[in-house]
Design a protein that fits this description.
About 50% of the residues lie in helices and about 25% in strands. It has four helices and four strands. About 10% of the residues have low confidence.
Length: about 220
């Protein structure tokens, strides 16, 4: 009688174990298969889904992006044309040698005697923090303050010594003002030389021994 009661009180009997253990092992195998294959497949399928969704979104936006690209290219072309026009306004189309020869003719026409004409510094535009090693090109701290010296331009500094009357000096400078290149005049020094006869021979004028500096802008 006591043996029967003990047998009923046992939780795991051989009969139960023959059913329970295979069930547990099968469940474990199922969990392993799910963890190893099903879940990664699910995650990967979600990733592919979102990638396809993003691709479709970008594809739908492509026509608008093309229109924006066309608009940006048109604006860039317009800005580039405006930049070229501005460069032409500043530098003209005449090179330095031709311009200096023309200035010599203007001086002769206005009885403005040039004693010496010496090309000094040549300054090119450089990007900030861009080191340029060129013995023939000067760079100084004032380049950034020159609003006319922009990308694609250079400026030539020319020292001029002359003898002229004040009237002829003004006439020469007036002619220089109308040249196609931008020419800045600075550092004008004047000293009287002697009393001379003016070109129109109607009045005496004081001849001036002077010097000035020309800043001539041109394309690189």
């Amino acid at each position: 009688m006591s043996n029967k009661i003990k047998k009923e009180n046992k939780l795991i009997t051989p009969e139960r174990a023959s059913v329970l253990f295979p069930t547990i092992i099968s469940s474990f195998i199922v969990l392993v298969v799910i963890s190893a294959f099903v879940i990664p497949k699910f995650i990967n399928s979600n990733k592919v889904y979102f990638e396809l969704k993003e691709f479709k979104r970008k594809k739908d936006e492509l026509p608008n992006l093309k229109l924006q690209a066309i608009s940006i290219n048109e604006k860039l072309e317009k800005l580039n044309n405006e930049k070229l026009k501005m460069l032409d306004l500043i530098s003209g189309t005449t090179n330095l040698e031709t311009l200096l020869a023309r200035l010599g003719n203007l001086a002769e026409d206005n009885n403005f005697k040039i004693i010496s004409l010496v090309q000094g510094s040549l300054i090119k535009y450089v990007e900030p923090n861009n080191n340029q090693n060129n013995a023939n090109v000067s760079q100084n701290s004032n380049v950034g303050s020159d609003n006319l010296l922009v990308e694609g331009l250079k400026k030539n500094i020319v020292e001029v010594s002359f003898v002229s009357s004040f009237k002829n000096l003004l006439s020469f400078l007036n002619e220089v003002e109308f040249q196609e290149n931008v020419i800045l005049i600075r550092n004008i020094n004047l000293d009287p030389v002697e009393i001379g006869v003016s070109t129109d021979k109607n009045e005496d004028e004081v001849l001036l021994n002077g010097s000035l500096q020309m800043i001539i802008y041109g394309k690189i």
